[in-house]
Amino acid sequence: MGLTILGLSGALSHDPSAALYIDGKLIAAVEEERFVRDKHAKNRMPYESAKFCLEQAGITPAQVDIVTIPFAPISLFSSKARWHYAKRYWYAPDRSLDALLTGNRRFKRYRKKILWCLEQLGFDAKKVRLEPVEHHLAHASSAYHCSGFTEKTAIMGIDGKGEYATTFFGYGENGKIHKIKEFYDPDSLGGLYGALTEYLGFEMLDGEFKVMGMAPYGDAAKYDFSRLAKFEQGELIINTDYANVIGFRRYKEKGKGYYFSPKLIEWLGPKREGDIADDPYVHYAASMQALFEKLALEMMDYYLGDILRETGRLAFAGGCALNVKLNQRIIARPEVKELFVQPASGDAGTAVGAASYVSVMNGVPVEKMEHVYLGPAFSNEDIIAACARHPNKPEWEKIDDVPQEIAKVLVEGNPVAWFQGRMEFGPRALGGRSIIGCPSVKGVADRINEQIKFRERWRPFCPSMLDTVADKMLSVDHPSPFMTFTFDVNDEWKARVHEVVHEDGTARAQVLKREYNPRYYDLMKELEVMTGNGVVLNTSLNRRGEPMVCSPKDALDMFFGSDLQFLIMEDILVVKR
Prior knowledge:
With about 575 residues, the chain is an alpha/beta fold. About 35% of the residues lie in helices and about 20% in strands. It has 19 helices and 24 strands. Strands 15-24-23-16-17-22-18-21 form an eight-stranded mixed β-sheet, with helices on both faces. A five-stranded mixed β-sheet has the order 3-2-1-4-5. A five-stranded mixed β-sheet has the order 8-7-6-13-14, sandwiched between helices. Strand 7 and strand 8 form a beta hairpin. Helix 6 crosses helix 12, helix 10 packs parallel to helix 11 and helix 14 packs across helix 18. The longest helix is centred in the middle third of the chain and has 31 residues. The termini are far apart.
């Protein structure tokens, strides 16, 4: 066995995960939340996820050459990061002094926790080779090294923050990453979007998708949000009178402090509550999205424009890379030939990023990320055993032709819980752990929402489609295996698959090649035969507020806790009579 590298992320606060590379091949990658059934698994260690990676590879801790983490100590003298933080947070002198005097305390705590976790897994803490990688370098590597791009590649990373950096611009060439510019906390576009997410009544790090989904219902021209942030002379400056605030500047309610200030409330009115999205909050969402897109594109042009005009290749990661509306605008740029967005762009993906970076630094290039089916899989025998143990005593039958049988159920208007093969890595269900429906059946999206997902009504459902359909249905021909882009839907198809077209005429599409998920592909082929459309409605297999389903037991719990009637796990069909 060659070079074996285990990447561990998330002991800081949220989204712990693990990823394992052996000789440049990604063997496994998985989020802790899926095992512990706690969304984002806040303040937990990547214990179960690391354990799974080792089991999947069939190796012991002693066979791991390097363990790497996406968090590193930041020097007070060779980087401006800690000085910038101290200066911009002058109004919270305790935090400013902390950044200058003990600015790597978080790293030391993090390292200690990881070493403790490794001991629980059976590693020898005295012998383990633990290599830290800067957070944004890990994001950059997860995008660039997994993109498969061989030419010079522009690299962009935008998220809340890592150690101190919030934004990264650089380029990759011959496997090496070169840093051009970083911005530091509190100057964070992701942090600003997160603060407005909180103001709009959602949880930061979870509700940003909801704000993006709400935005098309509003009019961005109604409110001018330009006072919140500006990009001038190559610098991003967030207005900390309103957002990205700490200490006494925070707006507080019921004992909880938020990342926006009372001044924001004075300007925009009370924080949104409940599930209804109406005037003026839909317009605020639209204005925030418009400002976010404008500033992100200005920064990209300023720092990466020359490289993009030279080769047209861009690799993008960080939580903000999951903003599919921004990505649609990037691929519309004439200078951008291809954009690769890391499918697990948030902090979970930094386990892959840190491990891929260390692999390349040790002379072992990593393979292109072609799919994300990197989690656990279960056999028919596992599934039958889970049915036998389950308190609801499910009735099950084994069926012969799953794609054909399930396509019939879908065409009759029924949603189906679809549990097949290895679980996906990252936040998107891509046909491993999905709830599926026939997108030409009127009302199926509402039915899934009311009976199963209990989601806000403005959030769109997305299509998975055959690679032979994409150029007919979508206005732009661009690879989209991971649902990281929205596309305008051609007029004829808006009527044909109305259940997967959003308010603004777009769809967040997964375009599938058969080799990566043959059974899901064959299901869509059957739908094409029956309805003329090789497209399926796809949303993640979970209830609201829960992580995506991992095991057959999770699937059965979710199934009996919802109004779903059909659950197919491998060849085992469970039906509620």
